[in-house]
Specification:
Structural class: mainly alpha
Number of helices: 18
Radius of gyration: 20 Å
Order of helices and strands: HHHHHHHHHHHHHHHHHH
Number of strands: 0
Shape: globular
Strand content: under 5%
Distance between the termini: 26 Å
Helix content: over 70%
Mean pLDDT: 84
Length: about 425
C-alpha cells in the first residue's frame, strides 16, 4: 500500500509557509497604523490627533490580540479533527479578514475585522507546530522546530519590503487587501497532506489542569503571557515610533512610511538571525530554562536601551535604527525557543490543546500591553518612555521560566 505520510520537507515547508504568511498579515497593521487612523478616526467623528492615534492604535492592537487569545479553540480542534485540516481553516480565516480590514469604513468595523484576523492567526501555531513535531524524524525535530519560527520574521520582512516598495502606491487599504493571498497556501497544504496526519477521539480540555499537568500548563501560559506582552509592547511599535516622530517633524507621509518600513526590516533581521541560530543556542546552553533566562533578560536591556535611551533620551534616530536588530533578536527571536520547547511540555493527546491554551492565554493577558502603551503614551506624551517602562514585564516572567519543565535532551512525549 502506498505510504501517504508526508515527508519531513513537506511538513516543514507547509507549516513554515503558514507561519510566514500569518506573520505577513499580522504585521501590516503596524506599518499603516498612522495613515489608517488618520482616515478612520475622522470618519468615526474622532479627531486624528497624535494622542488619539496612540490611544486608539493601542486599543486596536488589543482587539487583534483578544481575537488571537480566543483562538485556543483551534488547539482543541487540531487534537480532535487533525492538524492539517485545522491549519487550512486558520489560513482561510486570517487571510479573508485581513483583506476585509482594507474595506473598513470606520473604527468599529475595523476593530471587528482585526479581532477576526487575530482569531485566525492565533490558530495557525496551535495546529502547525504540533504537526511538525509529530511527523518529522526525532533526529531532525529540534532543528526544524527551531527554524520554524524563522517564518515569522520572514513574513514581517516581506510585509516591510512591500510597504517600502509599494506602500505609497497601494495605500493602507491596498496593503490589507493583498493579505488575501495566503489563502492560496491552502491548496499546497491539502496536497502535502492527502489525509489528516492525526485523528483522535476528543480530548478532555480539563485534563490540562489535572494534578500531574496543571503546574506545566500554568507555568507555560504565564511565561508566554510575559513574552507576548513584551513583544507587542516593543517590537511591533518600531514603525509607529518612526512614523510619528517624522510626521511631527514635517516629513512627508510617504517618506515616513518608507522609513517606518525600514525600522521593521531592521528589527526582523535581528529576529531572523536568532531563529536560525536557536537550535545551536539551545544545544550550547544545554537547557531550555537557561536559554529562556538569557532571552528574557536580553529583551529587557535591549528594549530600554533602544527606546528609552536612543530615541527617548538622546533623540537619535540613527542610534535607534542601529539598535533595532538587537531588540528583534531577543524579543521576537525568543519564540524560536518556544517552537522547540512548548510542544515538548505536553503529551500527544493534549499537545494542540496545551500549546493553544498557553499561547492564547498569553495573548489575552498580553493584549493589555498595547492598550497600556497607548494610555501611558497619551498621559506622558512619550511613546518611547511608555515602551521602556513596560519592558519590566520580562523580569516578571523569570519565575515562570523556572517553574516550566526542563525538556532538553529528552524525546517528544508520546
Amino acid at each position: 500500500m502506498q505510504d501517504l505520510r508526508p515527508t519531513a520537507q513537506k511538513v516543514f515547508w507547509a507549516t513554515w509557509l503558514g507561519w510566514m504568511l500569518d506573520g505577513f498579515d499580522a504585521s501590516i497593521y503596524a506599518y499603516v497604523l498612522v495613515s489608517a487612523l488618520k482616515e478612520l478616526l475622522p470618519a468615526s467623528g474622532i479627531a486624528a490627533s497624535q494622542s488619539n492615534i496612540g490611544f486608539y492604535g493601542g486599543l486596536l492592537f488589543s482587539c487583534f490580540m483578544v481575537g488571537w487569545a480566543c483562538s485556543m479553540y483551534w488547539g482543541w480542534a487540531a487534537d480532535r479533527y487533525g492538524r492539517a485540516p485545522v491549519l487550512c481553516m486558520t489560513v482561510l480565516v486570517y487571510s479573508t479578514f485581513t483583506a476585509a480590514s482594507g474595506l473598513a469604513t470606520g473604527v468599529t468595523m475595523f476593530a471587528v475585522f482585526r479581532f477576526l484576523t487575530g482569531f485566525g492567526i492565533g490558530g495557525e501555531w496551535s495546529a502547525g507546530t504540533p504537526l511538525l513535531h509529530e511527523t518529522v524524524p526525532e533526529q531532525q525535530r529540534v532543528r526544524l522546530a527551531g527554524w520554524l519560527h524563522s517564518a515569522a520574521p520572514t513574513g514581517l520582512l516581506l510585509a516591510a519590503l512591500l510597504v517600502f516598495l509599494a506602500g505609497d502606491a497601494l495605500g493602507w487599504r491596498g496593503l490589507f487587501i493583498v493579505g488575501i493571498l495566503p489563502a492560496l497556501l491552502v491548496l499546497f497544504v491539502r496536497r502535502a497532506f492527502p489525509k489528516p496526519v492525526h485523528r483522535r477521539s476528543p480530548p478532555s480540555f480539563t485534563s490540562l489542569f489535572a494534578v500531574d499537568q496543571r503546574k506545566t500548563t500554568w507555568a507555560a501560559a504565564l511565561m508566554l503571557s510575559c513574552a507576548i506582552f513584551g513583544l507587542w509592547s516593543s517590537n511591533f511599535w518600531a514603525p509607529a515610533v518612526v512614523a510619528i516622530k517624522l510626521t511631527a517633524n514635517g516629513t512627508a507621509p510617504a517618506r515616513s512610511l518608507e522609513l517606518g518600513a525600514l525600522a521593521g526590516i531592521a528589527t526582523n533581521c535581528g529576529a531572523l538571525v536568532a531563529c536560525l541560530l536557536m537550535p545551536w543556542i539551545t544545544t550550547y546552553l544545554a537547557s531550555r530554562r537557561l536559554t529562556g533566562f538569557v532571552f528574557f533578560l536580553g529583551s529587557t536591556v535591549s528594549v530600554v536601551t533602544c527606546y528609552g535611551l536612543a530615541i527617548g533620551y538622546l533623540d537619535s534616530l540613527p542610534l535607534f535604527f542601529l539598535l533595532l536588530p538587537l531588540v528583534g533578536f531577543f524579543t521576537n527571536g525568543m519564540f524560536g525557543l518556544f517552537t522547540i520547547w512548548l510542544p515538548e511540555m505536553f503529551p500527544s493527546a493534549l499537545r494542540g490543546s496545551g500549546s493553544g491554551f498557553a499561547f492564547s492565554l498569553g495573548r489575552l493577558l498580553g493584549a493589555v500591553g498595547p492598550a497600556a502603551i497607548g494610555m501611558i503614551a497619551g498621559t506622558t506624551g512619550s511613546l518611547p518612555l511608555a515602551i521602556s517602562l513596560l519592558a519590566a514585564i520580562y523580569v516578571v516572567g523569570l519565575p515562570f521560566i523556572a517553574l516550566s519543565p526542563e525538556t532538553s535532551g529528552r524525546p517528544l512525549p508520546a
